[in-house]
Amino acid sequence: MRMLTAASSILQELERTLQGVRPDEIAALAERVASSQAIFVAGAGRSGFMMRAFAMRLMHMGFRAYVVGETVTPGIAADDLLVVGSGSGETQTLVAMAAKAKSLGAVVAVLTVVPESTLGRLASDRVVVPAATKDGAAGTAASGQPMGSLFEQTLLLLLDTIIMHLMERKALEGAAMFSNHANLE
């Protein structure tokens, strides 16, 4: 019974957090993605895994999507988009990456708990996720989950929301996307 109580608590936290995200910020990011020539994604740790999942879904939809740091990722160029997931908005490797992308003329977008963070200030587009940071920084939401779990879970759901919006916009169904799915498994 304890397991079900924990799962219920997680779902309640997710619902509360998702209701706190501004729909206009998600819509703006979806439009930015749709209008970009190439989309690069980055994140550290578990947030990075969520960003990788986003890149994979974008690729399934036919977008030119890349994960920063992979050996097959090309250079970013003017008018390309870098989407960064960072709860704190202060991860130094991600800050340096965003600054470099911006200096090359790329657009930077961030999904973060802390909009006034360094990444938040560098970004043209921000999606504020009212979750807890992994260090439990003052002013962030409380969570019964460890470290940044609430942010990471919310990040995945928000990115899937963008995918669903883009699927609707392009009149795509999951079956149509399957043609771009890996087939050497």
UniProtKB/TrEMBL annotation:
Domain SIS span(s) in chain numbering: 29-172
SUPFAM superfamilies, per the entry: SIS domain
PROSITE patterns: SIS
Protein keywords: Isomerase
A Pfam family of this chain: SIS
Entry's Gene Ontology molecular function annotations: 6-phospho-3-hexuloisomerase activity
E.C. no: 5.3.1.27
PANTHER family assigned to the protein according to its UniProt record, in alphabetical order: 3-HEXULOSE-6-PHOSPHATE ISOMERASE
Protein name: 6-phospho-3-hexuloisomerase
Organism name: Paenibacillus xanthanilyticus
